[in-house]
Design brief:
Its main location: membrane. The chain is of the alpha+beta class. It contains ten helices and ten strands. A four-stranded antiparallel β-sheet has the order 5-2-1-10, with helices on one face. A three-stranded antiparallel β-sheet has the order 4-3-6. Strands 7-8-9 form a three-stranded parallel β-sheet, with no helix packed on it. The longest helix is centred in the C-terminal third of the chain and has 32 residues.
Length: about 375
């Protein structure tokens, strides 16, 4: 149980890896994941210990069975880290009376994404560690220089964000970092003659990007679009103001006659119709970004797939060359090819270290 062989299998490292894995597993139960999501989220950083001690347990040679997936994961994680280091340019926020925000960011024209894509967002003034995913409501074709997300105030993090932007003395600038966008590879819904979209509450957000895609097709390209039927249910009448976000804040085409859109909205928690005009409580907050704030852009630029292939290939070739040199001039003279003198754990650590150095060098250069 406490044996750590110099050249063989390390039982202690295997036990440490097992405990880390059990910690990951225990927090995945719905009682923990749903009620204490942050515990679930932060506990999953134990994957670092799980992988590290797993490699020390079985040795680097046996660990090569999962090297391709692990190598690609490290590249993806490092590129996401590089992107998250930048502060993006937040231009404005539309504040609705139903505790809902639309944040509008400056976007690089070369950044393309499909409808229903998502983006992770971090606001350091609220929490430096928390990253939250939000559906992108804008369309990269209709709004080439803007990117927007809609946020419903439901948890503590979103409530703080809403309070910051809705207060009478709202801030002039808000520091925001993003990761993404990430989205579906194809827009398969374009091939249908009729689309029926059913949503409840803030679940309407993904459909905004789809509708804006059809606005672009019908106005800019003058092409025939499918019939759109949007059926949405809201708890209260104030949430009907979310439909005001259907059109972008700027650049809305004037002629929408070719767009075949039918909207059916239902209020489920009020027995009598309200007479209050909630549109009066709608306001737009214009922010003053810092000159150092950058537009949202792909971390590897417009030709990201080409650059990503270059990063993967170059970092892996560097890894093979460096490990070949280290093995030939450091490990082999000690080991004499007998596998008895050089520590198995030290060899594994060297492989991990060189792998991380190569990925960091290639990713940073790209």
């Amino acid at each position: 149980m406490i044996q750590w062989d110099f050249t063989g299998v390390s039982n202690v490292a295997g036990e440490l890896s097992l405990f880390a894995g059990l910690g990951l597993w225990l927090t995945t139960f719905p009682a923990v994941r749903r009620k204490m999501f942050e515990v679930f989220f932060y506990t999953h950083y134990l994957y670092l210990l799980f992988m590290f001690f797993f490699i020390l347990h079985v040795g680097i040679s046996y660990s090569f069975i999962m090297l391709p997936g692990f190598f690609l994961f490290l590249i993806d994680r490092y590129l996401r880290f590089l992107q998250s280091r930048h502060r993006v340019c937040l231009l404005s926020a539309r504040v609705l009376p139903c505790d809902t925000l639309e944040l509008n960011f400056s976007k690089s024209p070369g950044l393309k994404y499909n409808p229903t894509s998502i983006m992770f967002m971090n606001v350091p003034s609220i929490s430096k560690l928390q990253w939250h995913p939000f559906t992108i409501s804008s369309n990269s074709n209709l709004e080439p220089d803007r990117l927007s997300v809609i946020i419903k105030s439901e948890g503590s993090w979103t409530q703080k964000l809403y309070q910051i932007l809705s207060s009478p003395s709202s801030v002039d600038r808000l520091e925001v970092s993003v990761e993404g966008p990430y989205g579906p590879v194809s827009s398969h819904f374009l091939r249908h003659d009729t689309l029926v979209m059913v949503s409840g509450g803030s679940g309407i957000t993904p459909f905004f990007s789809i509708i804006r895609e059809f606005i672009y097709l019908s106005t800019k390209l003058k092409s025939k679009t499918p019939q759109l039927i949007l059926i949405c249910a809201f708890k209260r009448s104030s949430e009907l103001t979310m439909l005001n976000l259907l059109l972008p804040i700027a650049g809305t085409p004037s002629d929408l006659s070719n767009l075949r859109l039918q909207i059916e909205a239902y209020v489920t928690r009020e027995k009598t119709p309200t007479t209050e005009d909630y549109s009066k409580h709608h306001k737009t907050v214009w922010l003053k970004p810092s000159p150092t704030d950058a537009p949202v852009s792909a971390i590897l630029g417009p030709n990201s797939w080409l650059w990503l292939g270059a990063v993967i290939a170059s970092s892996f070739v560097m890894f093979l060359i460096l490990m070949g040199i280290i093995t030939r001039y450091y490990i082999y003279p000690i080991d004499r090819n007998t596998n008895k003198n050089f520590s198995t754990s030290t060899k594994a650590v060297l492989h991990i270290l060189v792998m991380c150095i190569c990925i960091a060098a290639a990713g940073s250069l790209a």
